[in-house]
Design goal:
It contains 1 helix and 9 strands; from the N terminus they run αβββββββββ. The two termini are 36 Å apart.
């Protein structure tokens, strides 16, 4: 009899989880400030799985930019040149998401992968030919507050604010995003 009660309890919990399950895909616009103080606008792709009324997870793929200044000295003429460099990253946040009627709260880890750079300096007579970052892979933590707003049928709008400090580097980001989400089959 005790085994039957345990099986019934697990079956009831599984049905409850399946009944609440919702999956979303989406695209968004992100404006964020890098630790250097420049505002960058980027795009984001989203997958979200709401497993229960209040619990789920979300994964995003973001393009991220950051800027840094680098000074080099020419030893023969003792001139110093300052270069402004835009660093490009692919960012993958994986977050636990708590759903409520007021706001949704997300937190989780973030992986940034350095993919390249661009020289934004225009006044230098010297050209910068290479720039690299070690390590190319950095880890951070995400904090996000958002609100899901129903639009039409299975479309939702989700504005959010977020903060993403890097754990072992000086890179920190904070900003706002606006995502358009589509609910996969109900």
């Amino acid at each position: 009899m005790k085994q039957l009660k345990i099986i019934f309890l697990f079956a009831f919990m599984a049905i409850n989880l399946i009944a609440q399950r919702q999956e979303f895909i989406g695209i968004g616009a992100v404006s964020e400030l890098y630790h250097g103080g420049m505002l960058y606008d980027n795009i984001s792709l989203l997958y979200e799985n709401q497993l229960h009324k209040h619990h789920g997870f979300a994964m995003e793929l973001n393009r991220r930019n950051g800027n840094t200044n680098m000074t080099m000295t020419d030893n023969s003429s003792l001139h110093s040149y300052t270069f402004r460099i835009q660093e490009n990253y692919l960012s993958l946040p994986v977050m636990y998401k708590f759903y409520s009627k007021i706001v949704d709260i997300s937190t989780g880890f973030n992986v940034d992968y350095y993919v390249g750079w661009k020289d934004l300096s225009s006044s230098n007579s010297v050209e910068l030919t290479s720039h690299s970052i070690t390590p190319r892979l950095t880890f951070g933590w995400n904090f996000k507050i958002s609100k899901t707003i129903p639009l039409y049928n299975r479309f939702y709008l989700e504005p959010s604010v977020f903060y993403n400090p890097a754990l072992y580097a000086i890179n920190s980001y904070y900003g706002v995003s606006l995502k358009l989400k589509y609910e996969l089959k109900k």
